Amino acid sequence: MDEPKPSVVVVGGGFAGVGCAKELAKRGIAVTLLDRNNYHQFQPLLYQVATAELAMTDIARPLRGIFKSEPTVRVHRAEVTDVDPASRTVTTADGQTFTGDYLVLAAGSQPNFFRTPGASDHALPLYTLEHAIALRRRLVELVEEVDADPSRIDQGALNFVIVGAGPTGVETAGALADAVKQVIPRSFRDLDINRARIYLIDHGPVVLAAFSDRAHSYTADKLEHNGVHLLLKTGVKEVTPAKVILSDGNEILTRLVVWAGGIQAPELAAKLGMEQGRGGRVATLPDLTVDGFPRVYVIGDMANTPDHDGTALPQLGSVALQAGRWTAMNILADIDGTERKPFHYKDKGIMAMIGDGAAVAEMGPHHHELHGHMAFAAWLGVHAWLMSGVHQRVDAFLSWGWDFIGSARSSSLLDDPERARIDWGDESGDAER
Ligand SMILES: Cc1cc2nc3c(=O)[nH]c(=O)nc-3n(C[C@H](O)[C@H](O)[C@H](O)COP(=O)(O)OP(=O)(O)OC[C@H]3O[C@@H](n4cnc5c(N)ncnc54)[C@H](O)[C@@H]3O)c2cc1C
Questions:
Q1: Which residue, 2, 70, 302, 376, has most beta carbons within 10 Å?
Q2: CA of 147 to the centre of ligand 1 (A)
Q3: Would you call 171 a catalytic residue per the annotation?
Q4: Contacts (Cβ under 8 Å, ≥6 apart) of 113
């Protein structure tokens, strides 16, 4: 008789968790997938939802729908609150426990407000679908408010502040600039949109610090051309409900502050009792397990995984998806009695959209640099690959990309809440589209 196959508990249905569970399912391994949400969210497109260019249903998919053809994968919606690496057991908020022969922790990250007074209360982060919807709602509310009473502009109702000039901040600023120039005026014809101001703030001297010098100046020029005010070498001292107070003492009246200032590991990371690196990420060995617990894997944004040269791999969807698949390969290697392999990341490059059809991309291991429409095409290709790894359906994304490059985007989404409606009650199949 065959040996019973080992079971695997996976925490987190993001790129890493889904990537791992899908590979294991192909070999009929029993997987329990736990996530606080019953859907997977495609984070790289959150700001398109926030600025009403895409509907929620375009970037989220029920986890049970993703695994509907894989009978060995069980999805549970649950908040994991504790973890015991020795017994490979996790405990959920409602007191249930789940134990696996293997445990895979892939719980992502959370926003880091760096203890900036008022930021967690009054700034909107952009890390989850709920965040994107909250941001979109605030944007629509403010535009409606000004449309009804233009004097609100003097109180900063059309001043939009983005904190952090990394890819998320730059992409959000670019998308807001597009919304201000191209989407809002089509729906709100009497509104004096020329008085809208978008500020992108960073304490560093450049935008997109991880990119090349040429990309810094290209991106800064494009953003400024699109009407984004760059406030570099400037910190944020405090966020209040009505303004942002800057490190140089200046203040910006505003009712919409987007926090793209940084991320940190989730609380669960500390529960492991392991060494934590930058941003609280859990240090892993090259095979993606943690020291002393060869059947406990930590992957994706939550992990501090060394690249071949010893530097930590970046927090990217492509790293998370590949690490998820690699983890499954190593678990299957144990089952087959072969050797595990150290994780080897195939560098897909780094890229960011700047708005108005422009993008920067540094492709492949040698970071070959592309700007403009070529970079946008590369961005579209890599993200279609990423999306197909978890969602399978990339049609809405590609059609958005096509419209975007042709400047033919929809003008009706901002005041069309029905399009954003989704019924998460149907957990058995695809979301309503
Ligand atoms: C706005 C934005 C834009 C981005 N753009 C890009 C891009 O263009 N290209 C790119 O490659 N990367 C991009 N990234 C980064 C990329 O999205 C992340 O690196 C990737 O999502 C990490 O995958 P993960 O599986 O580790 O975590 P996640 O995708 O964050 O998944 C973690 C999952 O764990 C669940 N979870 C967390 N804690 C618990 C708990 N206690 N109990 C139960 N469930 C829990 C969450 O609900 C979530 O589903 C972007 C990120 C953001 C925020």
A1: 302
A2: 36
A3: yes
A4: 119, 120, 123, 259, 261
Lowest mean pLDDT among 69-73, 207-211, 215-219, 348-352: 348-352
Residues in the chain: 433
Query: Could you give phi then psi for residue 143, rounded to 5 degrees?
Result: -65, -40
Q: Which atom of ligand 1 is nearest to the CA of 353?
A: 8
Which residues' Cβ are closer than 6 Å to ligand 1? 11-17, 34-37, 43-44, 46-47, 79-80, 106-108, 126-127, 167-168, 266, 268, 300-302, 315-318, 320
- Provide the whole-model pTM: 0.91
Q: Identify which of 9, 41, 43, 176 to mutate to test ligand 1's pocket (most ligand atoms within 8 A of the CB).
A: 43
Beta strand pairing status for 110-111 and 263-264? Answer: antiparallel
Q: Using 50, 70 and 90 to split pLDDT, how confident is the model at 396?
A: low
Atom number of ligand 1 nearest to Cα 266: 38
The residue written with tokens 């065959």 in the block is 2
Given this model, what pLDDT does residue 407 score?
54
CA 81 to ligand 1: nearest atom: 41
d(CA 164, CA 142): 22
**Residue from 264, 251, 306 nearest 283 by CA:** 306
CA neighbours within 13 Å on the CB side: how many for 147? 14
Cα–Cα distance for residue pair 314/307, rounded to 1 Å:
9
Give residue 403's pLDDT band: very low, low, confident or very high (50, 70, 90): low
Question: Which pLDDT score is estimated for 41?
Answer: 93
The terminus-to-terminus CA distance of the chain in angstroms comes to: 46
Distance CA 413, CA 421 (A): 12
**Ordered strands of the 368-371 beta sheet:** 350-355, 358-363, 368-371
Strand 80-84: give its sheet, edge to edge.
80-84, 89-92, 97-99
Question: What separation in Å is there between the alpha carbon of 110 and the centre of ligand 1?
Answer: 9
